[in-house]
Amino acid sequence: MENLTEVLQLFLAAENFLAIAVGVIVGVTVGSIPGLTATMAVALALPFTFSMEPVAAILLLVGIYKGGMYGGSITAILIRTPGSPASACTLLDGYPLAQQGEAKKALKMALYSSVIADFISNIALIFFAAYLAKIALNFGAPEFFWLICFSLTIIISLASGSMIKGLIAALLGILFSLVGLDSVFGSQRLTFGNYNLMDSISFIPLLIGLFAIPEIIEFYRKKVVPHLRAKASGAGVSLGELKRSLKSIVRGSLIGVCIGAIPGTGATAAAFISYSDAKRRSPNRERFGKGEVEGVAASEAGNNGVAGATMIPLLSLGIPGDVITAIILGAFMVHGLTPGPLLFQENLPLIYALFLGIMLSSLILLVVGNAAIRYFSLIADIPKSILFPIVLMFCVYGAYAVNNDTFDVWLMLGFGLLGYVFNRTGIPAAPFLIGFILGPMFEDNLRRSLLIGSNDLSIFVRGPITWFFIALTVGSILLALYRFVSSRHKAKREVSEPGSGV
Amino acid sequence: MKKLLNVLCAATCGGAVALTLSVSTAQAQEWPSDDVRLVVPYAPGGTTDVLSRRVADLLKEELDANIVVENRPGAGSTVATGRLARGGRDADHTILMASPGHAIGAAIYPNLTYDPVEDFVFIQNMLNIPNVMVVPADSPYDTPLEFIEAAQDQNMSFSSSGVGSSIHMSGELFKTMTGSDMTHVPFAGSGAALPALLGGDVDVSFENMPTVFSHIQSGDLKALAVTSEERSQYLPDVPTLKEIGEHGLDDFVTTAWFGLIAHESFPEEAVTTMQEALQAVMEREEFTSFVEQLGGEKGTRAGDEFKAFIASEVERWDAVAEQAGLRQE
């Protein structure tokens, strides 16, 4: 009881509410500007927190994190330029929806899905932190290896249309991910002696180039203005659509929670895994990638599910799962607090006050997001002849802002050309991204496992977690094969049946 | 009308002269006459970044100037350092937070376009953090000697936050000095490396103090030794490796050091101003508690002493990189 009053005392300060609100607003704004990531905003906000009370300080940063995670989807949907890496997957269906005059529907679905996922993620953090942290500790390199294998199999479903083209894209993605320093020996791979390439290809310029630039080239190549004024930004999400997507949202949130709780995988991967899982299960499978609102929901659920869960290893183990939580760890340190097992023993009221604030941040995200949609969806009404030059400017600026380097601008334009070639030849960009993100994780964890196990292959079957993911991987491949064979049969039957009637 | 024009003309000229004068007085003003740029050669997050932002925040008040923190990651800090070495227009208002990567980078990448010692002015060493030799809680080894003996018969694995990190290099140094059979298992950052250590997937690590301190306190990790010159005040019962004395460990001292450097053309008066301001920063209560939180010590080296220290670091890691076959061609 004494604790409760202390918790409320810590939480019910005007400064906390202000911090969350400001954080979420800054996050949504920054997240929606390509190249300005939530990571940068959190780093820039850090010094401001030095003089604040610890709870308000952390909540400000958490607010930016959560706002940024949602904000990235706004530009992904409206102008095919992901504001942050994690929203790359959202544009696969969000942008087509906006093109069909349903921008508002996509934006609203992204928001609702983000908020629900955020909420589920917070619940996981508050009630299962200790349990999930224990699982995270049992997640060594071999377990990671199989998780990545499983993720790779479920993205087979992303290669819609031609399997060969999907494979070409994925392999090209892996090829580009090889650039940089070898993670075990530190030797240079495909850097051609260029210092800028040593830290591997920057992800944000690649994303911006791959998605936004081809759209701009296509627009000027055709030299016709499709409609001077795009149709008004459409209606919101109907209850039916939300209901239909709810299963995917919940599943996506849980995928996000699991991935967030294990340090080192990240929100971008979570979004893609959630998206392909939803696509595989959905009866509307065929519509994914062409403007299916459930796709937007699944992707946003995946990446927002990560946000609360990354706080699990941070608070309970003192382990930051990504860059943003690393900065938040720094904020804890500056305030004389060390996240980890002892924090729960020594500062329990503070932790609970933080939990309350984190819950509140989901609600504030809903309010701020709704307001943002009202203004941002006006972008959809701007004539493209005016919009695209501005988008191009943002692309250049965004690529530059990541590392303050012009090299990244060239990189972005290079990937723009590649994206254009992809568009013209019908090679899908999503498998390329997956290859780029998961390829290095696959390689690193394979090599790490072999190093840990002194080249003994039995390390790959060492415990229940590995068995679980092996079963999932094999099951997933069998399911894909079954679907492939049965669709072939169906196609054959359809071809032969009319003939047999004659 | 003409009169009015004349008056306007005179006023404009006068204004222009006043403006020129004020600009020239600004130039004659003492350093800093402009914003100071503090380059962090790593991405946001991590000790270098947080330390830089903490220092910038306090330094702003001491110098009465704006301090702009800029992250410029790449190739283990060598991209940002190379850029600093090239100098340029604002070299007299640019400082960089250097760390072990400055010396290790020079050892690993032979094609650097700069000399890690001669091309820079070394202003002030701000913070030193010891590395701690830690093993999982259920490890059978309780002292460094027990570990070394075991490592001479069987292969041991040691984790690090990545190739060329001070954690990795400390492990390599330990391996060569003691003749142990050890395999390096690199991870993408300390955050990813820690679960492998806590879960017992790797046998040992020479982690930075702040990463493992709370786990040592909670009993999830065992500290066998610290790598600093003297015992750490935060782990007074843990011996230094130097104390062990055997196996050539008597000169095993590695610390993660952090300090501010600048281009060689950085004006002398600016160095003095900076050193005075940094001294004041380091005496601030906020800085002291921050250092304590990291389990580190305030840096004492400045100027030439700092430079000599870096020179010895470069030489030492050069030898380790050579022996461990880490030199890139």
From TrEMBL, chain A:
Keyword terms: Membrane, Transmembrane, Transmembrane helix
Record field: transmembrane: 109-132, 144-160, 167-188, 200-220, 253-275, 323-344, 351-373, 385-402, 409-439, 459-482
Residue ranges occupied by any DUF112 domain in the UniProt entry: 18-433
PANTHER family, sorted: TRICARBOXYLIC TRANSPORT PROTEIN
Protein name as catalogued: Putative tricarboxylic transport membrane protein
Organism: Halomonas shengliensis
TrEMBL record, chain B:
Domain of life (superkingdom): Bacteria
Family matches, as Pfam families: TctC
CDD domains: PBP2_Bug_TTT
Signal peptide extent: 1-28
Keywords: Receptor, Signal
Coiled-coil zones: none
Family: Belongs to the UPF0065 (bug) family.
UniProt name for this protein: Tripartite-type tricarboxylate transporter, receptor component TctC
Organism (species): Halomonas shengliensis
Lineage: Bacteria, Pseudomonadati, Pseudomonadota, Gammaproteobacteria, Oceanospirillales
